[in-house]
Amino acid sequence: MDKTFTISVDVEDFFPNRDNSDSYFGKIDGKYWGITKIMDICESFGYKVTFFVDVDNTENFVEEEVIKLACKLISLRGHEVALHTHPPLRPDSNLEKDRLMSNYDSDYQYQYILKCAKKIEKWTGKWPKSHRAGSYGANKATFEALSKANILVDSSIFWDRRDFSFTSERPNIHPFKFKHIIEVPVTSYYLNLQTHFPYFNFKINKKTDIEWSSVSEFKQFINQISPLHVDIFMHSYSLINVKKWEPNIYAIQNLVNFLKVVEGKYRNVLFQDFLNEKQYSPLTKSEISMSLSDMSIKDYMNIYLSKFNFKNLSSILGL
Fold first, then answer.
1. How many C-beta neighbours within 10 Å does residue 165 have?
2. pLDDT in tens, 42-96
3. Which domains does the chain have, with CATH numbers?
């Protein structure tokens, strides 16, 4: 069985109170560092990307015409426009991270999915085939709603982030089928450095995100685990230092290097392609052990400093 990889981009904007460009296109000094830059880089390798687009944008940080143009451009360039759902906050909540599909019942989720999917169909002429719930906030009702809406590929599961015990007896990072839905989990691995720090249980679950995983880690993951499928994860603003609103050169280099790691070893597919792909067996191991010599200190310094914001350290470490 040949190995496959996807490139996924969550297209969303949570950056209020600014006068600069939206982070869908990310215009900086007349150039674009958002979705168009991501497409340019991936197309230079001959790869296609799945963009999970937040078309509802309930805070109205981005004008609908911008979102419409983004969807049209993604589709015209031969990439996949998939659905990313961040429903409104519940009336009794003020927490941004509380914008979860799992806060609502199956009927609300179904109606919300329909509303958003119809926008994509109107703008691109295609009904979306894939979905990712914002903040991985999917539950059993989400899968029921997706099935009813005929969106049969999902990528909302990020093990250890929420309780997905209803979908599988054993967490795995390989695609699997849950009832009518093909689930392509967010690719993640357990990083264990305890071989060098025996009294410090340094073991965290990290996704293969160009802003979260170093190139040295990603290589170790591919070499040690040899997964049948891997997803390279990004956001539409991943190539931008949103604090300074300037290109994030490290992240751009990281994207290129990640693509070089899988080049020639994995076949590029879109999420919608899993409707025709064979299903994979569960994976029993996703932990990698790294020695200090395996790690690139430069990689880690770049991750920590690329956005010049030490508050990001806890999120980078998955805390």
1. 9
2. 999 999 999 999 999 867 778 899 999 999 999 999 999 999 999 987 766 655 5
3. 4-187+208-282 (3.20.20.370)
